[in-house]
């Protein structure tokens, strides 16, 4: 997949094979969706220049949820474009107000940018640490219609993956900016289910977003997809969610079995683009997946 590239008349894909950032062009002002991390910001700025887009016309940056890999590029982008208004949901703003959360995000940013440099996705990993304090300029809420210069976006509630997650929907062109809410795609044929907060909520979000029948699926990582690729994206990711649910239900009846299952899932999912995260954090995520299934309403009712 090429970066940057035009997806629709108004939507451009920026970033790299690990991070998908989106630029929506309006008649006079433009909007970025997703921020990447500290070390992807310069890459995004270069790509904007390659597209011959006037940076002074980029007025908005929309952040989808409070995970480091979707947050820590924002202060660098804002430093390069001081007029940029950073907007996100109320829960993300609330979480970023906590010093303990900001410290975790800075640690995660250091780990990911080091991995990205080792993988050759960015040129270097040496950056001043971003300040995440007082970064949000405006809160946006589910149900709100953002009127951006002829390109309205609907803010959608998207619980299950992260507290306070929001998706963005461009109804006119049926473009869904779904961030991580339809799973984490590892091309060519692997998906990581990522219901890190609540399995039941994630499943409901997944089906709700799928029922929109988007012409374009625009996740936060690993490209963007349309046509048969978009249909396949949803079908394969849904099948993987079902597979991991059945696997955990049938193989996690004791603490010893849970430990074995955690390692099995780690080996299954810590491949390809997922290796931009640390092995330690991925093992922790596998433990969370198991816990979320075992505590789910779906399992209690089965």
Strand order of the largest sheet: 1-2-3-4-5-6-7
CATH C-level label: Alpha Beta
β-strand percent reads 15-25%
Task: Indicate the overall shape.
Answer: globular
Number of helices: 9
User: Fraction of residues in helices?
Assistant: 25-40%
> What's the CATH H-level homologous superfamily?
Ribonuclease Z/Hydroxyacylglutathione hydrolase-like
Number of domain modules: 1
Structure description:
By secondary structure, the protein is of the alpha/beta class. The protein has one domain (5-239): Ribonuclease Z/Hydroxyacylglutathione hydrolase-like (Metallo-beta-lactamase, Chain A, 4-Layer Sandwich), CATH 3.60.15. 38% of the residues lie in helices and 19% in strands. It contains nine helices and 15 strands. Strands 1-2-3-4-5-6-7 form a seven-stranded mixed β-sheet. The chain has a six-stranded mixed β-sheet with strand order 8-9-10-11-14-15, with helices on one face. Strand 4, helix 1 and strand 5 (58-63) form a beta-alpha-beta unit. Helix 7 (255-269) packs across helix 8 (279-294). The longest helix has 25 residues, at 227-251. The radius of gyration is 18 Å and the shape is globular.
